[in-house]
Design brief:
Blueprint lengths: L1 H4 L2 H8 L4 H48 L7
Helix pairs in contact: 2-3
Amino acid sequence: MPEVMNSDYIRTAKAKGLSQFLVVYKHALKNSLIPVLTVVGLQTGILIIAFIFVVINLLVDLLYSAIDPRIQYK
């Protein structure tokens, strides 16, 4: 956000007399959210893969007891 607030188009919006609220929420916030969305998207993919991995390991552990009755979970 600090990098975006020092941009030319932010200075231009301020020079036009727009309020600080409009400058931040209409101009700065939209452009500063782009890298955040990129990181969130990448992290969501890693999270989904980890969740699938955990579920598959749980199913395999449960199948152990179904296949071999000597294996019991207490």
